[in-house]
Amino acid sequence: PGDQIEPAHGVGEAAEDHAHEGHHLTVVGRQPDTAAVRRLAALPGVELTGLLEDIRPTVAAAAVYVVPLRIGGGTRLKILDALSLSKAIVSTSVGCEGLEVTHGHDILIADAPADFAARIVELLREPQAAAELGRRGRETAVTRYDWSNVARGLMAVYREAATAAPRPARQAARPHSRLARLAAGIGAAMGLAGMAMVLMADA
């Protein structure tokens, strides 16, 4: 999203530094008309597409999928999209928060702009390493976030909730650790992830 672009200046620098090598930065999603967005769009090798009806062709063409999110909430569905398409991903820790991913295995995580840009450049220069990271990311998506697996987890949580013994009325207002665990289990079973995304693509 546009309000996250300024913290992602390391991404813009990586795109500018490597535009001559045939790479460019494509920013997909809703971008407000802000000074930060205009500065990013003015850099060599940067394209802002706005919202796309179907992001899959753009993601499929990407060499590296980057998520420079520093703040924000919501779900992380777009990272799951990229994982399912076997894309090498570089994200901040906030960008992949709540997902069962592991730095160096199925994703690269960096929070400082210089480190973030370095991870992108590393993957651009080592396409085999990027392909392997994407392959493991796809495995993560299939084994942990396939709808059949998510549905089984949800059904297990629902069954446990349905068979839970009723509590006495006088305890109804108290925090209940069992219900808290059930709520956490629902969230974990759903395994949701996403945001408008930024990606580095081959020219």
Furnish the topology, listing elements before pairings.
Blueprint: H1 9-18, E1 23-28, H2 35-41, E2 46-50, H3 56-60, E3 62-67, H4 77-84, E4 89-91, E5 108-109, H5 113-125, H6 127-145, H7 147-163, H8 177-190, E6 198-202
Parallel strand pairs: 1-2, 3-4, 4-5
Antiparallel strand pairs: 1-6, 3-6
Helix pairs in contact: 1-5, 4-6, 7-8
Structure notes:
- Helices cover 46% and strands 13% of the residues.
- It is of the alpha/beta class and 203 residues long.
- Helix 4 (77-84) packs across helix 6 (127-145).
- The protein starts with 8 loop residues before the first helix and ends with a strand.
Sum this structure up briefly.
The chain has 203 residues and is α/β, with parallel strands linked by helices.
Largest sheet: 6 strands, mixed
Overall geometric form:
globular
Along the chain, the helix and strand elements come as HEHEHEHEEHHHHE
* Tally of DSSP helical segments: 8
Mean pLDDT, to the nearest integer, reads: 76
Number of E strands: 6
Spans of at least 5 consecutive residues with low confidence: 1-7, 189-203
How would you write the strand order of the largest sheet?
2-1-6-3-4-5
Helix content: 40-55%
Distance between the termini: 22 Å
Radius of gyration, in angstroms, nearest whole number: 20 Å
Helix-strand makeup class: alpha/beta
Strand content: 5-15%
What keyword list fits this structure?
13% strand; 6 strands; 203 residues; single chain; disordered C terminus; 46% helix; 8 helices; six-stranded mixed sheet; alpha/beta; disordered N terminus
